[in-house]
Amino acid sequence: SGGFFVYIAFGPKVGISSKWFVEDYTYFYTNKSGVQLGAFFKYQVLDIFSATLEVNYARKGSRFVDLNLIYSENSPIFMDEITRSDFVFHNLEIPVIATYHLGNLKAFAGCMMDVNISSWAHNVRTLYVQDEAWEEIASKTDISDRIKYFDIAPVIGVGMDIEAGPVTLFCDLRYKMGFANINNVTKYPNFTSNTLSIVVLANIKDVFF
Hints:
The chain is an all-beta fold. Helix content is 0%, strand content 72%. It has no helices and eleven strands. It has strands at residues 4-23, 27-28, 30-46, 49-63, 84-102, 105-129, 132-142, 150-164, 167-176, 191-203, 205-208. It has an eight-stranded antiparallel beta barrel with strand order 1-3-4-5-6-8-9-10. It is elongated, with a radius of gyration of 20 Å.
């Protein structure tokens, strides 16, 4: 209908994300799930259009990552007889999203800024006891200086708004498409960060004008 009004909503945000790295834009490493916690502010001026700003903490990463992406073959890290490595990122995420509404359904696009708070490699080795394989974490290595501090990427998705009594739930399925190389080690392979998320935002206060 395209009616003009001003609608403001804000509240907490919670989500589950599945992240994976892509080496040289072709090879996909195994995804690793994590959580998102934060807050949002939504500003709507038409019944078909709104803009949302969010700030949240996210724990995410990727599994079975090749350590040769960020370390040389002669690095002491390989002395632990590592069989695989999982990367875990602690990020501050700031998505800015424009949304088109069609009733309770919506589609959106925007950009997400990622700030690397800290990054870790969980290095796993496999032990064999009576022909049975057991995995243990051999070491946890701080790799923050080997990952770029800042990343920005487009985000797209679809969702649905659900009225639940006095609370409105904004439920989204989002995909962050990583294009920029986040490897901070020069002359080593490029790799990008991609994220698929299920996000729920809960409106705790409505303001109409």
